[in-house]
């Protein structure tokens, strides 16, 4: 899904006569779905325990990890203005080194610190310490030349594995809701109606490319991994949107001064539209499955069923 959406985004950008860097960053923007939107939609619709939700959550985790690598690679391409294999390999090696270093230090230092100070840490103190550690890793990531989101992601992963993980998660929940509200309000404030009017056609084209492209690529990918038609179609419809990491990638292009000013508001507009359509697409999944199964040729059904049986037996 990520590879195909990178290609689809690039081709759409080129078809709109955008520059190479605008098209490349558009591919990155379209390749990552929104964890926040999907989790909230599943909560409201009561679908977190459905079989296809496991596939969706698995894809989202991998997407978040790939998004970090993608930001590093896009930064490298922006700096060199070319697809240098050596430069990308060096950036990937640097990222791997810092990830290993941070995780090793985190696994040994953070859990030991929290374990020894457990009796002294009340609710408020533990909350402040947790947020402080998060900001500390954000600063470290920024100083190392990586995205601040990478630092927050790493520290969240480290804290989740400590003895205080569940307690921290409970304490941080109101803070998460606060920042989520601020995040979506700030995103809404960045939507310029004039930009939507001036770029209505590109926004419409990119929105359709996002929904159709993500649905098809995720569905095909799930089928290729041995999932049922039902779960594959449901997963495809659930992932048909862009979100928070897409904003970060769009903002990265602006901060590096390699993309046009219109790309960020277009990304926000497409995200707003696909955020609105996501719950309806998830609700219509069962109906889409029925239509797909009814119109699927008998020969294809037999091939898919044999493939699913072979995949299940190999597992």
What does this structure look like?
There is one protein chain. The longest helix has 32 residues, at 85-116. The mean pLDDT is 83. The chain is an all-alpha fold and 315 residues long. The chain is built from 15 helices and no strands. Helix 4 (51-80) packs parallel to helix 12 (244-255). Helix content is 82%, strand content 0%.
Overall geometric form? globular
Percent of residues in helices comes to over 70%
Query: Beta-strand level of the residues, as a percent range?
Result: under 5%
Using DSSP, what is the number of strands? 0
How are the SSEs placed, and which strands pair?
Layout: H1 2-15, H2 20-30, H3 35-45, H4 51-80, H5 85-116, H6 123-143, H7 148-160, H8 165-189, H9 193-198, H10 200-224, H11 229-238, H12 244-255, H13 263-283, H14 285-295, H15 298-314
